[in-house]
Structure to design on (390 residues):
């Protein structure tokens, strides 16, 4: 791909892939809430610019999806849930089906950035693959691979680390949050260098597009810094990736907090209808009988309405009006029926995949092979640029 004028901001979406000319565990938020949420004007302006670029990228995808390569993925710390689906998985399938080359990293090495061990890592990796296949990821059009199986990807960390300073790493929001949460516990070196590891994930395959929520934009900026500094110091090798902001609603957990695998407040994609009904029955609501969509004042009820709306493809306000004064019991019944109907074909496909473990292994093996071929080629290019071929 070369520079062109197919969008109003060609530089924002047409930096190109490697070899050509000049070449991100849910969800975007409404820009209109920026000041109410206490965002600084600078952050609001940055977010507004990112949304504008995302709109232009979406238009460019419609015109020529082949100019983009996407990198995204998940840490195998548990099973994927409806927050993952509505926040990112369905968007990955959309991009894949639109013709965008798609790479999915199962970030097994990143499990230990903030944990003392890997847990049942093999089971979780295979579960991620099964979920990907169940929701519609096509291994003929998307590459699914694991960090630990691609040595050349991780070797890129060494030159990349030379391009960033310690103070820059400490300023990264994810690293800052971890440092604050750690208290007296020392932060690991891997956690400190987490942004650089993510840069290696993106740049090894020369991805120029990363679907993200607004909180992940600093990681994309860090990756752009790494790419720019490498290209300036050693010659043009890497693209400057852009974040594609999600417009998905924020999905809370059934307890009203952030939906998280570790909080046990999720509806997992692999759950059956009965388990889904049991979990929703225990969901937090409030004492008001009349059901209304009011995210600010009634977040728990509004979250359940959002889930039903996403599953039905309808407005949560419309669903609320239909339930009226029927109460929380009726609301939970609607959510249960909506989600179970929506998830039924995904769960059926997942059961087929689980019944053939050899297929899961084949998908992962072939994806790792493709990722290794790509990483080896990129590392060779990096070593040549650095004049380290002897």
């Amino acid at each position: 791909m070369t520079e062109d004028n197919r969008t109003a901001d060609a530089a924002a979406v047409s930096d190109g892939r490697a070899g050509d000319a000049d070449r991100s565990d849910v969800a975007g938020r409404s820009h209109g809430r920026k000041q109410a949420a206490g965002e600084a004007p600078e952050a609001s302006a940055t977010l507004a610019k990112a949304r504008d670029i995302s709109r232009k990228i979406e238009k460019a995808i419609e015109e020529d999806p082949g100019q983009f390569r996407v990198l995204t993925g998940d840490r195998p710390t548990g099973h994927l849930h409806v927050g993952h689906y509505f926040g990112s998985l369905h968007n990955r399938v959309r991009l894949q089906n639109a013709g965008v080359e798609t790479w999915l990293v199962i970030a097994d090495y990143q499990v230990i950035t903030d944990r003392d061990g890997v847990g049942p890592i093999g089971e979780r990796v295979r579960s991620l693959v099964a979920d990907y296949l169940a929701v519609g990821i096509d291994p003929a059009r998307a590459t699914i691979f694991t960090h630990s199986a691609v040595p050349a990807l991780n070797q890129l960390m060494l030159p990349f680390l030379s391009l960033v300073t310690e103070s820059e790493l400490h300023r990264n929001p994810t690293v800052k949050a971890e440092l604050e949460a750690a208290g007296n516990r020392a932060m690991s070196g891997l956690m400190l260098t987490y942004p650089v590891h993510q840069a290696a994930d993106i740049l090894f395959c020369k991805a120029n597009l990363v679907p993200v929520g607004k909180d992940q934009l600093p990681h994309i900026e860090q990756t752009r810094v790494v790419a720019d500094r490498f290209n300036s110091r050693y010659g043009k090798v890497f693209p400057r990736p852009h974040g594609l902001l999600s417009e998905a609603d924020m999905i809370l957990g059934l307890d009203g907090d952030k939906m998280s695998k570790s909080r046990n407040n999720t509806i997992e994609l692999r759950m059956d209808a009965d388990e889904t009904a049991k979990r929703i029955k225990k969901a937090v609501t409030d004492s008001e009988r009349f059901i209304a969509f009011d995210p600010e004042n009634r977040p728990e009820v509004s979250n359940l309405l959002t889930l039903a709306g996403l599953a039905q493809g309808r407005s949560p306000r419309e669903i609320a009006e239909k339930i009226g004064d029927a109460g929380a019991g009726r609301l939970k019944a609607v959510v249960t029926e909506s989600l179970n109907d929506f998830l039924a074909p995904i769960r059926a496909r997942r059961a087929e995949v689980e019944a053939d473990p050899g297929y899961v292994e084949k998908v992962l093996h072939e994806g790792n092979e493709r990722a290794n071929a790509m990483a080896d080629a990129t590392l060779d290019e990096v070593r040549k640029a650095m004049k380290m071929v002897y």
Summary: The longest strand covers residues 69-74. The beta strands are 69-74, 101-106, 142-146, 209-212, 242-245. DSSP finds 16 helices and five strands in the chain. The longest helix spans residues 357-385.
